[in-house]
Amino acid sequence: MEYFSKQWSNSKKYYTMEEKFWNERAEEFNRKDIEQRESENFFSILDFIEVGQDRKFGNVLDIGCGTGFYSIQFSEISEYVMATDISENMLLYAENNAKVRNKSNIVFVKNLGQN
What residue ranges are annotated as transmembrane (predicted)? Predict the structure, then answer.
């Protein structure tokens, strides 16, 4: 049992370092996502997903959603999007980006699968 306790403790340290890494980069990622969205060369991921005019996906799970760039696009073709990320700051930008675009079918969750 001690072995597993030690492994769990080590994984929490790694998780904390990863979270800090992405929290520090959230503003930069959000700025780049906005620049890409506003670019005349912007291609939506929806351009690569074939969906019939009258058909929507039921649920989409976006793991590692960052600032919500793809989550927002997925919300166009699905009934419900659950988006998760390790970074609280990324999720704050994602929630704001979804709100600005009036997307009410996206739920953002931190630490999916973590205690």
Answer: none
